[in-house]
Design a protein that fits this description.
16% strand; 2-enoyl-CoA Hydratase, Chain A, domain 1; 4-stranded mixed sheet; 11 helices; 10 strands; 6-stranded mixed sheet; alpha/beta; binds 4-(N,N-dimethylamino)cinnamoyl-COA
Length: 258
């Protein structure tokens, strides 16, 4: 695997998203490698707990790779969102062993959605989180419209989505988006300690707990379908074309509002 590193030591699998020059943005290949890593870990008894993090000190994941989806049609957008849900984000959420996201910097758009698919989140004090999709003329398409309100409540979630602004780590802690905030140099050790604490308990029971907690959120399933359709529809808008083009041309967007 090129864009993902996986090491397994003493029951802890460390999965590192490794495209630091692009701030670990999720392109198709990276998503496919994340899927491959989880498929491998599922059947590997040496893996008890998974920690996901980003390479470098700047970013966990700065979103989906904007260069890749800027030209998509509505149908391509919906298809890819659905594939992403099924092969990565739902796979992580439904993974039968605990998954901890160690958020070591920017977690934006698809990057925050990846962290939210994990079961638990810890952030470094320099981390910044947000769903900037509406600034690109699109909506969160990898589960963000469902998981963010589940974690922090509808009002705060919609404020984050409408404003497209980032929040800092202490606000994320206050909102309940992350379970703990630690200095960046302590992040890995804190995540590993949490993993070791989890490993003291029954992995099988944790698997059932994950299943039960997820079942309680099932009414969101209809919301996901709506999200997939609406996300695809965004790709047909002039605002989306302008939002992505402006980012690639490094200028402020002038949204036509259509
Ligand atoms: N995609 C592609 N490249 C990215 C990127 C991204 N999301 N984020 C950063 N980069 C690249 C930059 O273009 C830059 O590349 P070069 O110009 O050096 O070649 C490099 O990473 C370093 O970034 P900056 O120079 O911008 O670094 P700064 O410290 O100045 O700024 C930043 C850091 C995180 C504030 C900034 O990079 C930024 O605003 N990044 C974009 C954040 C963002 O809007 N992310 C996307 C959110 S929307 C889909 C499903 C879901 C989605 C999409 C499609 N399908 C099913 C099709 C989800 C969409 C999103 O995630």
């Amino acid at each position: 695997m090129e864009n993902v590193q996986l090491t397994i030591v003493d029951g802890i699998a460390m999965l590192v998203i490794n495209r630091p020059k692009q701030l670990n943005a999720l392109n198709k290949q990276t998503l496919s490698e994340i899927n491959e890593a989880f498929e491998y870990m599922r059947d590997n008894d040496a893996v008890k707990v998974v920690i996901m993090t980003g390479a470098g000190e700047k970013a966990f994941v700065a979103g989906a790779d904007i260069k890749e989806f800027a030209d998509f049609s509505g149908a391509e957008g919906s298809d890819l969102a659905k594939t992403g849900h099924m092969t990565v984000f739902n796979v992580i959420e439904e993974f039968s062993k605990p998954v901890i996201a160690a958020i070591n910097g920017f977690a934006l758009g698809g990057g925050l959605e990846l962290a939210m698919a994990a079961h638990v989140r810890i952030a470094s004090d320099n981390a910044r989180m947000g769903l900037p999709e509406t600034s690109l003329g699109v909506i969160p398409g990898y589960g963000g419209t469902q998981r963010l309100p589940q974690l922090i409540g509808k009002g705060r979630a919609l404020e984050m989505i409408f404003s497209a602004k980032m929040i800092d780590a202490s606000t994320a802690l206050n909102y309940g988006l992350v379970n703990a905030v630690v200095p960046q140099e302590a992040l890995q050790a804190t995540a590993e300690k949490m993993a070791r604490d989890f490993m003291k308990n029954s992995i099988v029971a944790m698997g059932y707990a994950i299943e039960a907690v997820n079942a309680g959120m099932l009414e969101g399933a209809i919301g996901y379908d709506v999200e997939v359709q609406a996300f695809g529809d965004c790709f047909e808008t002039a605002d989306f074309k302008e939002g992505t083009t402006a980012f690639l041309e490094k200028r402020k967007p002038q949204f036509p509002g259509a």
